Amino acid sequence: MRRFALRFLRSPEGMVGLVLLACLVAMALLAPFVFPRDPLSIVGRPLIAPFTDASLPLGTDRLGRDVLAGLMHGARASLLVGVFAALVAVAVGTVVGTVAGFAGGLIDEALMRVVDAFQVVPAFLLALAFVSVTGPSLPVIVFAVALGAWTGPARLARAEVLSIRERDYVAAARAIGMHPAEIAFKEVLPNALPPVLALVSVIVASAVLIEAALSFLNLGDPNIVTWGSMIAEGRNVLRTAPFLSIVPGFGLVLTVLGVYLFGEGLVEAMAHRRGRQ
Amino acid sequence: MTTTLATLRGLSVSYRREGAQTFALRDVDLDIATGGRLAIIGESGSGKSTLALALAGLLPPEASLAGTIDWPGLDHVPVAGRDIGMVFQDPGSSLNPVLTIGEQVSEGAVRHLRLGRATARQRALDLLARVRIPQPQAALAAYPHQFSGGQRQRIAIACAIAASPRLLIADEATSALDMIVQAEITELLDTLVREDGMSLVFITHDIALAAKLADRIAVFRDATLVEVGPARQVLARPSQDYTRSLIATHIDFSAPRLIDERA
Amino acid sequence: MGEPFVTARGLRKVFHSRGRDVTALDDVSFTLARGETLGLVGPSGSGKSTLARVLMRLIEPDAGAISIDGEDWLALRGRALRQRRGAIQMVFQEPLAAFNPRATIGGALDDPLRIHGIADRADRAERPRRIAELLERVGLPAGFAQRAVHEVSGGQRQRVAIARALATRPALIVLDEAVSALDVSVRGTILELLADVQKSDGIAYVFVSHDLAVVRVIAHRVAIMDAGRIVETGPTPGVIADPQSAMGRALVAAVPRLDFGRDDGA
Lengths: 277, 263, 266
Fold this sequence. Notes:
Chain A is an all-alpha fold. Chain A is 75% helix and 0% strand. Chain A has helices spanning 2-10, 12-34, 67-103, 105-120, 123-134, 138-149, 151-164, 168-175, 180-197, 200-216, 227-235, 243-276. The model of chain A has no long low-confidence stretch (mean pLDDT 88). Chain C is an alpha/beta fold. In chain C, helix 3 (105-115) crosses helix 4, helix 3 (105-115) packs parallel to helix 5 (154-167) and helix 5 runs parallel beside helix 6. Chains in contact: A-C, B-C.
């Protein structure tokens, strides 16, 4: 495990990703302490340009709200949705994939057709439809994003399980009379997990973007500030105050980049470990 | 009377792993005679496969090599594929699944002998016939998965000798096969080497196979050369305890049975 | 010696692959007595591994019957089958592939003990003691229980596999090429261990191998397989001395003799 961490830190992608993510997490965690006031409250004159007022370094928006406070509080929403949506998607996906691959036959057919059904609808449309029906709130958005993301892990887990199912150690577990459920979840699933975990970074990145897009369309949680809603806000004054869209846009780009590079570093460190065996 | 194809002096191969240096081969002196058949015997971790890679110049870049390999029998540094043919344990992974047998067998001839397409095809056909693939004409257009393990190994041998190498290295080339196919492949290697006057380095863990095929035997253990000599001498009068124990633990029809006969 | 322990009658199995039917078992019948070793020998693709797995109920045959200790082995289902599996255990060719890559040796031995409640009734503390006993039985130190399976050598791993098979106190162990992947010097010691266990515990073996010389060392009787059929069967020394089938003759001829060098040299 320590060697794994060392290898990860030695890869340039992993290192850059880690630094970016650490900054984001720090922003999200520090936001309530640095800006204890509601970031949606008015703190000054509207449309102060960035770097002109020392107390409001990134300026204010159309309603005179602090852009820096919005940026930091917005990181919370992005990271929360990204991480929890990925957790739900991977958990549901691996369980469905494992059951389908391990049980085979009709159960496999049925579950995989459900996966197909979810996969033919674009993830964003699925989330959009779900949120517009149930009404926007953070848990709903997490669920809506996961709805379009669990099929990838499910397919991958199933493919892994199909190959692991034929290994001798699974035959050995059957030979000692182990219950099929115990074989599936104790012998097969943990070994099917590593390639699925490599998908996590992609899911987190797309979850962050979907959440932003939902907020941009005013389908985000109205009670919290998110980068997507900030960009939507800034769109109205894009010609006169482009920074209002650029600043949160920058946050999004760095988040997605950080998550992606971090994932690359993990995959690389993992590949190393596998290659040595 | 015999000339030397290759001379290894003080050959060491080591890898640096987590700060420590581990030797895969340590201070090996060995000669390979032109037209000779040298068997390299050893158990897992003895360094026998590293020796094959070092000879063929195919060591991974992180390996550090000390000592010398000279080729007095050649007028140039040998190129793997042209001067040295290699046959590995698993023909399933040494053959490319998406290329036809014809493409793979003629590839060596095209690249190293600069043959034209038609001549190379004819040569591939001859090679497949030589390794006794049934219906070589049809086999040219077929893919590896259409053949059994034994036939795939024959095809891998055809690839290895396509450019008429001076040295053929067979690294555990028969250990993934069943006894009957193993006997056939050993027989085939014997014939090919004899007909073409190739030198053979035959790497195996099975001392009886070595006895069948080789005129010299080198025994390796824990990265070092234990003993080397004419096959008959090493087998009949081994000078080292380890060689004696290898011979003693070999199981053939004269090995003692471990069970009582039942009524 | 009375009723045979295992009786197999008319076993048949056809695999469908790439639109072709491959007959892996074709009307296979045999018997096995308690404490006896039957060698199953044949080239690759002769059906010997399929037969081993059918016997283990890892593959279901298309037709035929197997009775074990007078009971219809193929009729068992679900929980009843899982409970009865303890009586028949298996050792695989590749000791590394036969264990969960994450398993420790102690954990791998604990599973069968837990599932079959071997040491459960008395108390929990009984299980580590029983694991130590099993390790000792196969010639490994008790401290090995803490180690990961992938940390030990191939021969030691195969000893752990034998210990796992012994954990359920079976009456039959199916050994599928159990010594083929091991170093030559280790092979002999594993065969000795198997013979020793058989003598003390009276366990029957089905010993699958492509190497007739190894089978001769360990098996009382041998069945030679070719293209899904048993083509010859009899006491091992007799079959080797005078094989009746073409496959028997080919297998005998394929064993290389250690005849101290070639005599055609220069």
